[in-house]
Amino acid sequence: MTSASRTSLFGKAREDSLTALLPYWEIQDGLMVLNDGRVELGVGLEMSPTLFVHTAYMEGFVGVVKSLLRSGVPEGTRARLIVEVSPAHPSRVQHYAAGWAPSHPTARFLHERRAEAWWSRWQREEILEKRIYLTVLFGKRRGRRRIPFTKEEWQEVVAEAKRIQERIVQIASAYRIRAFPLGDQDIFALAYRYLNPALALSEVPEYRQTWQRYPREAIRRIESLRPPTLRAQLLKGEVDNSYRDALYVGGMWAGILSMYTVPDETYAEMGDVLALAGGSRFYLVMDFLHEPHELALRALKARARRYYSASQSGTYVDPNVRVGQVETEGAITHISQTGVPHSTWVWGHGRLQVLGPPGTPPSPGRGTGS
Predict the structure, then answer these.
(1) Angle in degrees, CA 70, 46, 40, rounded to 5
(2) Would you give the end-to-end CA distance of the chain in angstroms?
(3) pTM exceeding 0.90
(4) Cα separation of 178 and 44, whole Å?
(5) Rounded-to-integer distance, Cα 262 and Cα 289, Å
(6) For labelling alongside 172, which of 57, 213, 324, 352 has CA 20 to 30 A away?
(7) Where are the domains of the chain?
(8) What pLDDT score was predicted for residue 285?
(9) Are 234 and 327 in contact (CB under 8 A)?
(10) Can you list the alpha helix ranges (DSSP code H) found in the chain?
(11) pLDDT, tens digit, for every residue of 100-111?
């Protein structure tokens, strides 16, 4: 009886309102406000390809990324790096075809053939666009849901967000990385494309703030009084989670590959390798938690004591224990001498979300399942 009931639960569709589950409250002054009072800012990043650059440039680039996370993102906050890859908008192909009208017959013939080849590759979803964003979630939880900010409180939040954005832009610009703060419409467009993958090539509607609210009884009687909330504007497609292998979101199948630990090593242009698994539509999302200085130092000292106790056991000592003790003591010495944490970042979560066209759900054996 018990086993049969458990089996039936797996085959049963879990129905719930995704609109009610989203933590979004409002977007204002370039900030996404969550239900618990925390806010999230966004910065867009534009980087040049690094496939053919010199090794010294890549070493410096890694240092800039570390500096960006260490100095640009405050302690106790979560930074999220989002890489969005999707087919290019058809306007890019149209601009290429209409951007030049050569008078010479040979040049005109070559241009037409190139435009046709460009359009053919776009139809096969081989012309892709890559967008990179860095978001920072900061602020304290305010206890109950949706407690309004006072005018002074909101001004402090906006000022803190601008300071964080300015630091990120300054550090990125020093290494020729174009960085720009995201506005209300930019943040709305990012969330809209993520939640409606089948509408990624369509025009993103203009975001409208919820300017007036009515009592629920009045809305039940007069449906037209229902305000255009942020969550209602974001969700334009259906969600079907009745399949165990994939999630059906807005007309497309979504599979997720998750990473919970940092890889031993990576290399330049590794995103292209991930693109082979993701096809023409995918999101690469990486979360980083910036631990407070004191907590990191306390954890290092506790680790050093454990290594010391293991090394003084009087029996065989694993060489990894000695290596770990030296590295931990080196990190503590670095913090004591410079006051700068050697490594206070914790890998929170990384995931690759793969999107596929309508049809049969993707199979985990093909590398697109969770």
Answers:
(1) 55
(2) 30
(3) no
(4) 8
(5) 13
(6) 352
(7) 17-87+128-242+260-292+345-355, 89-126, 293-343
(8) 86
(9) no
(10) 2-11, 18-21, 55-67, 90-98, 105-123, 151-173, 184-195, 216-221, 230-234, 270-278, 293-311, 319-338
(11) 888 888 988 998
338 or 96: which leads in pLDDT: 96
Count the helix, strand and coil residues of the chain and give each as a percent rounded to the nearest 5: 45, 20, 35
At 34 the pLDDT is 92
Question: What digits encode the pLDDT tens for the residues 177-235?
Answer: 899 999 999 999 999 988 888 787 788 899 988 776 677 777 778 877 777 788 888 88
* Average pLDDT score over residue span 344-359: 58
What CA–CA distances, in Å, run from 249 to 12, 176, 205, 257, 322? 18, 37, 19, 16, 50
The pLDDT tens digits for 326-340 are 888 887 776 665 555
CA-nearest of 247, 207, 249, 198 to 231 is 207
Look-up of token digits 């900061």: 138
Q: In this structure, are strands 252-259 and 345-356 parallel, antiparallel, or unpaired? A: antiparallel
Closest to 44 measured CA to CA, from 83, 85, 90, 92: 83
